[in-house]
Amino acid sequence: MNTTDTATATPAGTAADGEQDGGQDGGQDGGQDGADGADGADGAAGGAAVWALAAEIRAASRARDLTARTLRRWHVTDPAETGDIVLMVDELVTNAVVHGTGPVRLALCIDGAVLTAEVGDADPAAPAAPAAPPGVPDWSEGGRGLLLVAALATEFGARPAPPGKTVWFTRHLTPRTAPAR
Predict the structure, then answer these.
(1) Which CATH superfamily is domain 2-133+142-172 in?
(2) Residue 18, Cβ density class (10 Å: 0-12 exposed, 13-18 middle, ≥19 buried)
(3) What is the pLDDT of residue 71?
């Protein structure tokens, strides 16, 4: 996990670099629904979508739906890749709801064959780096979210984003699922 300080830039090409969002969602999360009007929805080389989700139990479900719809619009259709990306977004949004404060911000950005996802909340405490898997199986139901992200992402990390933090990951897409230029 890469934990960055305030002087370190966001990974190149992320939504924070040139944030664009779609029309009003009108849902209970009160945020932006970029999946309905996200830049790059026509399968162009790049696009970004941003949403503000209420920090409630339904946020992870909403984030999964928004992510899956946006990936389809961006023509990212490989089931293994979309499944991994949706799972990682779910884990980060769940962590933000359970361990963070305030509304949850979800941003997706695609630039060629690189997808970046960012999840932010208002709690400035950076998440703990995942520990190496123990030698003995741990049958607990929680505490493995960041291990999953570490295993499935190309890169991931956290950085301060006052008043809180942003946890992000990148995923290199296979050429057959990368949006056409």
Answers:
(1) Histidine kinase-like ATPase, C-terminal domain (3.30.565.10)
(2) exposed
(3) 97
